User: Which sequence fits this backbone?
């Protein structure tokens, strides 16, 4: 229930509604509209190439070496984004903030990016789609990316004064997510409505379990 409802203060109660898909409490870091179903990737690490691995010290001994290193990073980052494009990836859902280079190449190769998703959001998306986060750093950047979700739509949504990302997924399980948007004049009213609805849903769930038995 926590991932499938959103409280929006400052709007009348009659503005409450049920929307297909889920709402991410973020705006697009980069938006490239695409028609129809799109392939989406979950990532939990920066896609900007690193000069050294964790725990490894990289020493620069000259300005020329520094410039060469930056060009390598830039080229490697572009290769990763090209690899995503060649696999028809149109949406990147990231739990971390991506660098400027990643956003630049995302716009260049028509890939929308949503950053800074919570651990709960990433886990929930992974559960309903059946895909695991993508690990980009491997020697082979020319093969297929099999572990991608399918988004049936992905669009911005303005609720009150905040912008959200509204996305629908082809579910890998019986659950077809819908998000409940609760509107009210103040947060306290929305919290009361959310608690009442959650209690009602819990009661219905217990009732259906009893009938099944």
Assistant:
């Amino acid at each position: 229930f926590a991932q499938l409802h959103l409280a929006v203060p400052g709007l009348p109660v009659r503005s409450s509604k049920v929307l297909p898909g889920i709402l991410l409490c973020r705006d697009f870091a980069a938006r490239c509209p695409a028609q129809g179903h799109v392939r989406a990737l979950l990532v939990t690490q920066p896609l900007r190439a690193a000069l050294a691995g964790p725990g490894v010290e990289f020493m620069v001994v000259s300005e020329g070496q520094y410039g060469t290193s930056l060009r390598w990073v830039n080229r490697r980052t572009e290769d990763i984004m090209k690899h995503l494009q060649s696999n028809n990836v149109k949406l990147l859902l990231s739990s971390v903030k991506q660098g400027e280079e990643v956003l630049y190449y995302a716009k260049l190769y028509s890939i929308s990016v949503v950053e800074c998703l919570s651990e709960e959001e990433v886990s929930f998306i992974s559960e309903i789609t059946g895909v695991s986060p993508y690990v980009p750093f491997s020697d082979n950047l020319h093969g297929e990316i099999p572990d991608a979700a399918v988004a049936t739509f992905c669009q911005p949504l303005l609720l009150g004064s905040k912008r959200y990302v509204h996305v629908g997924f082809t579910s890998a399980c019986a659950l077809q997510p819908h998000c409940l948007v609760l509107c009210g004049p103040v947060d306290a009213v929305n919290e009361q409505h959310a608690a009442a609805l959650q209690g009602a849903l819990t009661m219905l769930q217990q009732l259906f379990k009893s009938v099944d038995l």
